Amino acid sequence: MLLIMVAISCGEDEPDDNPNASIQFNFAFEVDGEALDYGQAYLINDDVVSFDVAQYYIGELSLTMDNGSTLNFDDQYLLAVPNTSARADAGENVGKTITKVDFNVGVSPEENSQSEMDFTEREETDVLAAQDPSMHWNWNTGYKFLRVDGDVDTDGDGVVDTGIAYHIGSDALLQALSVDSNIKIDQGDNSITFVLDLADFFANVDLSSEIDTHTGNVPELAQRLVNNYSTSISIE
Amino acid sequence: MLFALAVFCFQSCTSEYVLDIPNHFPRPIIPDENRLTQARVDLGKKLFFDPNISIDSTVSCATCHKPELAFSDNVSISAGVNGSRNKRNATSLINTAFLREVNKDGGVTKLDIQALVPIEDKHEMNIPIVKLVKRLEQDEEYVSLFEKAYGNASFIYATPRALASYIRTLIQGDSAYDRYLLGDQNALSSPALRGKRLFESDSLACRNCHSGYDLTDYSYQNNGLYQDSPDFGRALITLDSLDRGKFRVAKLRNVAITAPYMYDGSLRTLSEVIDHYATGGKNHPNQSQHIKGFVLTKSDKEDLIRFLESLTDSTYL
């Protein structure tokens, strides 16, 4: 098996100077197939809800080609935030097809422990550095692997006025996903889009009563949401 | 002359800050990358007392950690910005330098970033560190102090470390009890001595958890305050249901001036605390096996309180 490790650069979209091929990782957030707009009211499981934060970490990303080789992004992380992207060199893979995308939702224990390097020590451009909205827990020195915040209508008056917060983290809830794909790498720009559909993510959650989990305070709900990753995160 | 002043400033800013550590104490935990210097302590002290490190510039660290109360507060739950209150009592910061895990649930494993807890908590200062440092970077005085203390390091790196540096200097070990331990047989009154014997007795079992120079063994225990603890405590960190309602055993140094008590400040007086332990707790499933209840006479109880009062150190009062 051929292992190729390449670097990812995050930030604003820039013209591609690479004469070969590059991959742009896009992050889409949807609600029942409709593009997510912060502040817009949506109906999920009969509850009116709006969102103002939705983001998650992607780690240990690996792309498997149709010839069995892999393109690995070890020790690099992506922060999936609406309307952002990251770019990487596609290496020697022009003409191949990506058949599988493997990745973790979250941060590996080594980085999550903050023991070697904590989020205050990292370069500003590092997605594991302190973020705003924060992706670290100030009270337990670990990362929020996935964070969704917003408001919900709990009394049926149509007004979303009760805060909701779903912050998933802890080593035990680091989740590996493997998604089949059929993306051909052509010369020039290519894109892989990670899609998180919040309607699927909250499919078995009563948003009007289960209004938060910071993982440790409602671990059962946190685990249920982690179990929903496989049905709510897709690759396009 | 100018050269001499510059040399003086350089030496005083980079000079090591020497802690005055009592002989019967261990060495504090100070990482090499944040060794104590006068400049770092000075910066940390300025930040500690500055309400501008809260979102609306109304709450400083000292708002809830008052020097005259051994850097604790005298209300059950302190008010943060806009009067918002979290769910835990403000702990005394004295001798925090010796902690390996910070916060009542031990969730923060190094003091050098602990300050992010109150700074970012929506019930306390409610300002993301990213926003706070942008504010500090606009302040010329702070820019100068940060440069002296941490050179070119980022403000995000330096802010919590400067606060940690100042907090590491808050060391006390000169209470009447300390003097007694160091050989002054007259340091404790007769009632306090009787109270000490009670405290150390097998029947009360206080010292099974409250031992050592700060009268804590730093273990995490459920003290039976509630039958069904509303705060998961240590379990928030470990995700282990057996840790529900467990908190680090509280230091008893300065206990007489750090009321109210318990992790949520629900007990107002030392008398109420003793009554709680005398009843044997509320039988939470995780309750410490050491809490079994006991019987004290009124005189015994007063002696025990006299002993607890002997743990007060007036250095910062």
Largest interface: A-B, 27 and 28 residues
Proportion of helical residues of chain A: under 10%
Report the principal-axis shape of chain A: globular
Taking all Cα atoms into account, the compactness measure Rg of chain A is 18 Å
* Whole-number mean pLDDT of chain A: 91
Give the termini distance of chain B in whole angstroms. Answer: 40 Å
Helix content of chain B: 25-40%
Strand content of chain B: under 5%
How would you sum up this structure, described in words?
- The complex is a heterodimer of chains A (236) and B (317).
- Chain A is mainly beta and 236 residues long.
- Chain A has helices spanning 109-112, 198-201, 219-227, 229-232, and strands at residues 3-5, 8-11, 21-31, 34-35, 42-44, 47-65, 70-80, 85-89, 97-105, 144-152, 162-169, 175-184, 188-197, 212-213, 233-235.
- In chain A, the strands form two sheets. In chain A, strands 1, 5, 6, 7, 9, 10, 11, 12 and 14 form a nine-stranded mixed sheet that branches.
- In chain A, a hairpin with a 2-residue loop joins strand 3 and strand 4 (34-35).
- Chain B has helices at residues 2-14, 38-48, 61-64, 116-120, 129-136, 140-150, 155-168, 176-181, 190-199, 235-238, 270-279, 298-309, and strands at 220-221, 247-248.
- Chain B has a two-stranded antiparallel ribbon.
- Chain B has 317 residues and is mainly α.
- The A-B interface holds A 113-115, 118-121, 124, 129-134, 136-141, 170, 172, 214-217, 219 and B 103, 105, 107-110, 112-113, 116-117, 119-121, 128-131, 154, 156-157, 159-161, 232, 235-237, 239.
Record the SSE blueprint.
The complex is a heterodimer of chains A (236) and B (317).
Chain A: E1 3-5, E2 8-11, E3 21-31, E4 34-35, E5 42-44, E6 47-65, E7 70-80, E8 85-89, E9 97-105, H1 109-112, E10 144-152, E11 162-169, E12 175-184, E13 188-197, H2 198-201, E14 212-213, H3 219-227, H4 229-232, E15 233-235
Parallel strand pairs in A: 1-7, 3-13, 11-14
Antiparallel strand pairs in A: 2-8, 3-4, 3-8, 5-6, 6-7, 6-9, 6-10, 9-12, 10-11, 13-15
Chain B: H1 2-14, H2 38-48, H3 61-64, H4 116-120, H5 129-136, H6 140-150, H7 155-168, H8 176-181, H9 190-199, E1 220-221, H10 235-238, E2 247-248, H11 270-279, H12 298-309
Antiparallel strand pairs in B: 1-2
Helix pairs in contact in B: 2-6, 2-7, 9-12
